[in-house]
Write a structure and sequence with these properties.
Helices cover 31% and strands 23% of the residues. It has 448 residues and is of the alpha+beta class. The protein folds into two domains: 212 residues, ECO RV Endonuclease, Chain A, CATH 3.40.600; 198 residues, ECO RV Endonuclease, Chain A (3-Layer(aba) Sandwich), CATH 3.40.600.10.
């Protein structure tokens, strides 16, 4: 263990990167001498700031711009956690810098503030554990990130989408579902007391937002990096081959096009899938995209949620669309902006649409969709009402007949699936559902 010394050349990106590898497989506390007040840090802390100060010897208060000014290199430290399959995924989105709406309106991509920041970054990934002192969390990888050629067009498109919203006075309508890789995430405190920002071309004040790499894109950066730094056990990634000349939407449609109009039995036979398989329709969609035993890189990085929809003779689906069972205590202690439902709805969906007529079910079409701003607000109202009901000890919640966009009801198959609540004792597990009628209305708008 040693304290920081000038063991790297602050003008050389390669030197900085090589020095950063000393952290991989280790903790900050095991690599450098730390003052007692830092060693004993028990709260969440800011591990990134500690790495800057005690490992790299940086003093950010002395200058603006990149962390390594002479090298023009930005430094980011971010957490990984394991999903249900035991694979590392990003703990959260990676904030890259606050959005100044007035400045963004007049920027061009090559000279924009965000492009200067992200064109080359050093990203340190550590294993997040809330029960472990921040300085004792192990670093998993150090990745020198340059915007990959296959991502350059999409990231620029994302930035232009955000800029155009601002130019048209719609900064207050920004949603992460508007973009694929580069998001405009909320950066304010949330809640009714949050101070909002003025925007050009509109008198409506907008929430504070920052450019960010989406959680899904950050997971993709980690999974697609060279695997020689740590043992990794994750599924194989395949690319659709999206580029400036063939967008994610176009190339996805091209994958599905040969199967439109075919019966599910015909598609199942093509891929050797049993129609008794669990999540049968989803399995067919995954096979068409690239195989259920792999992940499609573009969809993974964009965080696009694949959902299958079964129709009959009308546009209204056979079923409403469910999300995961929620935690009563979690909702009771959260603001909307940090809720799981907000995160779920502020994303893009890939609807794979099947239709059954005269007893034969066929693959009909696909649709990339994100919830319009006005409907996100209606969903927020139901979430706020649900929070209020939980705090008041209610045992009944919003029904589908009472609201247009979403409702609350059980998904558990057994009445005995009970969980604790803040005020109502034991209640059955419940989740939010997007109303079948609302989905039908959206399908009619975009597809009829």
């Amino acid at each position: 263990m040693s304290s920081y010394s000038a063991s790297y050349n602050p003008s050389s990106i390669e030197s900085i990167y090589e020095y950063s590898l000393r952290l991989v497989g280790k903790t900050l506390a095991s690599v450098v001498e730390l003052p007692p007040e830092v060693q004993n840090l028990q709260d969440k802390g800011n591990l990134g700031s500690l790495v800057e100060q005690y490992f790299f010897g940086l003093n950010k208060s002395n200058h603006s711009g990149p962390d390594f000014k002479k090298a023009g290199l930005e430094l980011k430290t971010t957490g990984l956690k394991k999903d249900r399959a035991g694979e590392y995924v990003a703990k959260e989105r990676l904030k890259l810098g606050s959005i100044n709406y007035s400045e963004l309106e007049n920027e061009d991509w090559p000279t924009s503030a965000i492009f200067k920041k992200i064109k080359i970054m050093l990203i340190l990934f550590y294993e997040y554990d809330e029960n472990v002192n921040p300085v004792d969390r192990k670093f998993i990888a150090s990745i020198l990130y340059r915007i990959p050629m296959e991502d350059q067009y999409q990231i620029r498109q994302d930035w232009e989408t955000v800029r155009e919203k601002v130019r048209h006075g719609k900064a207050h309508e920004l949603s992460e579902g508007n973009t694929k890789y580069l998001g405009a995430c909320r950066s304010g405190s949330g809640g009714i007391n949050e101070l909002k920002r003025k925007q050009p071309k509109s008198d409506i004040e907008a929430q504070s937002r920052a450019f960010c790499f989406k959680q899904s894109y950050l997971t993709g950066i980690y999974r697609q990096a060279p695997a020689n730094q740590a043992a990794r056990n994750h599924s194989k990634l395949v690319s659709l081959g999206a580029s400036e000349f063939s967008t994610i939407e176009k190339i996805t449609e091209a994958r599905f096009q040969p199967f439109f109009g075919k019966s599910v039995d015909e598609i199942a036979a093509t891929f050797g899938v049993s129609n008794d398989a669990k999540h049968f329709r989803r399995l067919l969609a995954e096979k068409i995209l690239g195989g259920s035993d792999v992940e499609v890189a573009e969809l993974l990085k964009a965080g696009i949620k694949l959902k299958t929809i079964k129709l009959g003779t009308t546009w209204t689906p056979k079923e409403s669309m469910s999300f995961k069972n929620f935690d009563y205590f979690e909702i009771a202690s959260q603001e909307w902006t940090e809720s799981q439902l907000s995160n779920d709805l502020e994303r893009e969906f890939l609807f794979v649409i099947f239709r059954e007529i005269a007893g034969v079910e066929r693959l009909e079409n696909i649709l990339f969709w994100n919830m319009p701003f006005a409907d996100l607000e209606r969903a927020r109202e139901v979430w706020e009402l649900t929070k209020q009901q939980i705090l008041q000890g209610a045992r009944e919640f919003t029904r589908a007949s009472e609201r247009r966009v979403i409702h609350v009801r059980p998904k558990a198959a057994r009445a005995s699936d009970l969980v604790s609540t803040p005020k109502s004792g034991l209640l059955g597990k419940k989740c939010f559902w997007i109303n079948a009628g609302y989905i039908g209305d959206q399908l009619k708008i975009f597809m009829s």
